[in-house]
């Protein structure tokens, strides 16, 4: 919403005294806006692109928006580009004053430290934690005055025992502490400003997703700049950059509210296939229909993101019915992850205003594609050179050895620590998605393409010619259309970690995930490889020899073929490439001595932090399975069994027995004390017992008259264009 002339002028100076009437009127206006939030007048579905661009970034305290207020507070433009302001109390007070004035000018009256607890995917709305406080105090006569000081901005305190912490906190040792993250901008939504923050225990243990990520960024910078300097290329710093493709489902909210499994877990635990699915490939990139609210919903999501400075540039239909995707421009890893977490919250909240429910879970529906979040990752210098872009790095450094050395280091890291890459994507929803011809299997290889593979093969044999990416001309056979110039390499959608020219794409990441752990792992394994290379070069080895030796040792992890082919999967397994089919077993590699040593050496996580994170993720997995099992029990008792009884169906005895089977399986999970064993019992209950029961239920659904079946079917849920009433 925009400020209108009828609204009272916001007070912008600290110490200004808003009248009681003005404060009450602002509150009333805010409430009225919320009440009207879902109203969309006929014919006014979209805001113009021009309007979106003109307001772009107005609610992100960064760039020119921040500089206007910073200079008014007596600070130079660009103050926020250097984290040193957080170390200077006087500068922090001025930044706080600038933030306060910007916030009040935009109608905000509240602030919070915004942090990201672990084990939130699929269960915690917004994947974040926060306590919202009004930024005013009372003067001597009891009049409220605006107030926000540097100390309020820089740090906070909360209860660390009430979030997943893996034993790092307890009720009698509950302190949790918040510290501003200066690498990601403060932002504003509705009446609140959000201050990105790290969340740690009284002893400094990370209780969140962000703190290890920032430590891994430091490690990548420290070891990467060291390696480059030894090779004659001095840079101010290194950072990882990412772009995240977010897939979702949008379904009618009225039928969503009739499915307890979707409400509680984001996934249908039962449901017979509709007569039509994705077999005709008719949904992928088809034009979004204005006959349903999906397009208007996506446009509003983009509008809100643009206002926050989130470059959510791309939108399109995905493969499955009712499946869609958003994709932003790339950016620095901490900012992109924060923005993706915000995007997911906006998606869920805006969908309700259009009579929709947004599903972010990886596999909401059986036998159609699930959703992922492709993590496009690269390493760049702080001055803008992409180390995975061969032309850029050669021009900036004057060396043709740096690119193959960086590639060799990454290849070695993937081979050594593929178990951690698998652990980083072990979200509960990925159980049903990995290897199902929609996401790569749980075998961690990397695709480089024939050109790159041949180049590195020659390099390890001592041929140090520069890499020149190949292209080819493609004729369309039409006289009036010029030939296309295309890359020599095709896309390999079956590889978990393909090189796509200038970046690696971690394709197996789940749609509901906070991808901090994913990028913490990528940064850490790369930093460790850079350190190994630098140590050898300092000891007297030539860089080309170090790179060649690493490629020879780890060549087995490079695979350019079809990862869906079972014969290839067996070949990679026999070759010794990391393969961990069980998500629970993958999570439990976090506490292996190899990985404790890795994180410890790189100063990313301590041994207690590794073990605590493992406990949190196993508990999250088990808790997810328990919710799904309890939903299935309720749906059997309250819907399926009564419907089958009413029609005299053949499966009644099997269905009644199934209730006891699930309860028995849950009891076994609860009784098991060993963490990994408990997780795998839950996995067996989910992937075997409940899948077998689902087959019985889905068969019964097909044999039961529709008038007696009380649950919305896949036909009701999945075909928004055909089922939704006229949209206004």
Number of helical regions: 24
Low-confidence stretches: 1-45
* Portion in helices: 40-55%
| DSSP strand content | 5-15%
CA gyration radius, whole angstroms = 27 Å
The overall strand count is 18
Structural class: alpha+beta
Instruction: Estimate the global geometry from the Cα principal axes.
Output: globular
Largest sheet: 7 strands, mixed
Gap from first CA to last CA: 20 Å
Overall pLDDT: 91
Write the topology of this structure.
Layout: H1 20-35, H2 49-54, E1 60-61, H3 63-72, H4 89-105, E2 110-114, E3 133-134, E4 136-138, E5 144-146, H5 150-154, E6 155-159, E7 175-180, E8 186-189, E9 192-201, H6 210-230, E10 238-252, H7 253-256, H8 260-265, H9 294-307, E11 314-317, E12 323-327, E13 331-332, H10 333-353, E14 356-359, E15 373-381, H11 390-397, H12 402-416, H13 418-424, H14 450-460, E16 471-474, E17 484-487, E18 504-506, H15 516-538, H16 543-554, H17 566-575, H18 583-587, H19 593-601, H20 607-647, H21 652-671, H22 675-703, H23 714-718, H24 720-723
Parallel strand pairs: 2-9
Antiparallel strand pairs: 1-8, 2-3, 4-5, 6-7, 7-9, 8-9, 10-12, 10-13, 10-14, 10-15, 11-12, 15-18, 16-17
